[in-house]
Amino acid sequence: MKLGEVVVDVTPLKSSVPFRRVFATLALSTLGTQLTSVAASLQVYELTGSSVQVGLMNLVLGMSLLVGLVAGGVLADRADRRRVVLITRAVTALGIVGLAVNAALPDPHVWFVFVAAVFAGGVNGLGGPAMMAATPALVEPGQLAAAGALTTLTAQLGGMVGPSIAGVIASGPGLAWCFGVDAAIYVLGLALLAPLPELPADGGQESQHPLKAMAEGLRFVRHNQVVAGLLLIDVCAVVFAMPYALFPELGTEHFGGGPSTVGLLYTAPAVGSFFGALTSGWTGRVHHTGRALIGAVAVWGVAMLCFGLSPSLWVGLVFLALAGLGDTASEILRRALLQHYTPDRLQGRVGSLWLAQATAGPSAGNLEAGLVAKALGSSGGAVAVGGAVCLAGVAAVTLAMPELRRASLRGPSASEAAGPAEAAGPSEAAGVSGAAGLSGAGVPGAEPGASGAEAGATRTEAGATKAEAGVSRAEAGVPKAETADTAD
């Protein structure tokens, strides 16, 4: 295999000017969000002296984000997606300016930071599905995996360098400058996105009640084995094999280190994820995309199983890096398959379920890991058990949903396979599935509520999200208080 077929594929940047604008906006915004994330965490801690308060801020942020995502999915399927993205980003910029002003006061108000977190989470939740749903209209169908890889790469870079830059600014000019730079980045992003063409959804849903519109998206997921399967297989990984809550105990007790050891545990998956994004060129060329996705999730499970049984720190770090690599591959393939197999008129609603899953899943997984570790009396044993359960879940989903195994990005997309009549308006789930060339049979255990409960991610960073950018599990456990730039 040639080197050019392994490294990240930049074809979408070469062939699509609109996507270049989106990519540049995401790259800048990822950095800006990290500045606000660190600054907000520092400010809440400085004003209250309580880590509980920092965690509470993340909680209200995550709750408002979930509400925004659900509403944003319906909005993205009935309004011009470009307009939704521009408006939500402009409104969020005002909130960031407010944070800068508050931080510059002689006596900043901690309540305002909480209000801003709720505000940012809700507004960005509204805009996140529209940004995600717009991508298939900006690149060729065969470039979806490459576009997802590039987006993931920006998230990884921002996650690696952003906190350090925020620390330098916070210790120098001050916290207000962190917020101010982020606000300026939002304004620059608006200038980059303004020239984009109109991006209306196929077939307006204005006459459909929002609850019925959301129910239609849930029915589509339930009856589509590929979409339901890729959501459920991720639940197996993120709920049963999420180790980040155990890193402090593992670093100090299991491996006998200190804070620096704990830091290495958090860093290793991120390094693997970054390498995975850099070498993601193969994801757009693989013929059996569904099988590749299953294999990538299995790599995560095997790596977690081996990490839990690792006899030394350095062996464990290798397996954590391997887990990060597998996670990035699965994230890219999952995103591409989701967009490929979902009709354009449902992209917003189905995408919002994926983003909501990526927001809540890591929190549930970290809680599950803590409970299992307490029950077993061993943090390493809990991680190993989680990896084994993850593998069992992957096997179960693979056997129960054969369409996922056969999924491929090589065939026509759902919108291309669907006739004009079906692209123009609501249809029953069986009709949509049939138009996409998928099985219309009910999926055992694939209730949308279960799928949507997962969670790259966010793959959250302690309740904060890079949901639109598809942040991987490698950053999911990093204790930061992001202000939920879902468009980042």
Number of helices: 20
Question: Would you identify the regions where 5 or more consecutive residues have pLDDT less than 50?
Answer: 419-488
CATH structural architecture of the largest domain: Up-down Bundle
Percent helix among the residues?
over 70%
Any idea what the CATH superfamily of the largest domain is called?
Answer: MFS general substrate transporter like domains
Largest β sheet strand count, sense and barrel closure: none
What is the ordering of alpha helices and beta strands?
A: HHHHHHHHHHHHHHHHHHHH
Radius of gyration computed on alpha carbons:
21 Å
- The CATH class assignment of the largest domain is Mainly Alpha
Proportion of residues in extended strands: under 5%
**Structural class of the helices, strands and pairings?**
mainly alpha
Question: How many distinct domains?
Answer: 2
Question: How confident overall, as mean pLDDT?
Answer: 79
Overview features:
single chain, 488 residues, mainly alpha, Growth Hormone, Chain: A, 2 domains, 20 helices, 71% helix, globular, disordered C terminus
Give a verbal description of the structure:
- The chain is an all-alpha fold and about 500 residues long.
- The protein has helices spanning about 10-15, 15-50, 50-75, 80-105, 110-140, 145-170, 175-195, 210-225, 225-240, 245-255, 260-280, 290-310, 315-340, 345-375, 380-400, 400-405, 415, 420-425, 430-435, 450.
- The chain contains 20 helices and no strands.
- It folds into two domains: about 10-200, MFS general substrate transporter like domains (Growth Hormone, Chain: A); about 210-410, MFS general substrate transporter like domains (Growth Hormone, Chain: A).
